[in-house]
Amino acid sequence: MTNKKLERSRRCPACGWKFPISKVSAPIDRVDGKTFNCPDCKTALVYRTESGPMYRIFTLMTIPAVTLMFLYRDSALLETIGAFVILPLAIIAAVIWRRSEFIELVK
To answer: How many separate domains does the chain show?
Structure first.
């Protein structure tokens, strides 16, 4: 692993507190470059991500996926596209986004 990879962590460099995966329990909004204080040691941290715009685009794709799956049940083609194309792409995008997020000390 490179030094850059080691620096990118979801743990507080001062106390080891781990930034939660769940958006509900996160202490801040997941907006790239947003500063916040560690809940445990009050160290100034900044949230970073490399794939925020991509995540937002694929999140919006869940709406047509659910629409195609449930409103057009009589059309097997549209239901299949929603269930097996759009929805899995949105799930993959969410996983990629979560894996690319990290926190670092405010400089």
So the answer is: 1
Question: In which region does residue 48 sit, left (phi positive, over 0), alpha (psi from -120 to 50) or beta (all else)?
Answer: beta
Q: Which tokens is 103 given?
A: 């926190």
Q: Are 61 and 89 in contact (CB under 8 A)?
A: yes
Number of other residues whose CB lies within 10 A of the CB of residue 68? 21
Cβ of 3: how many Cβ atoms within 10 Å? 6
- Using a cut of 0.70, tell me whether the model's pTM lies above it: no
Query: What's the order of all strands across the beta sheet hosting 44-48?
Result: 35-37, 44-48, 102-105
Q: How does pLDDT run across 9-35, given as a tens digit for each residue?
A: 889 999 999 988 877 777 788 888 899
The mean pLDDT of the chain is 80
- Distance in angstroms (rounded) separating the CA atoms of residues 57 and 71: 22
Range of the domain at 61: 3-105
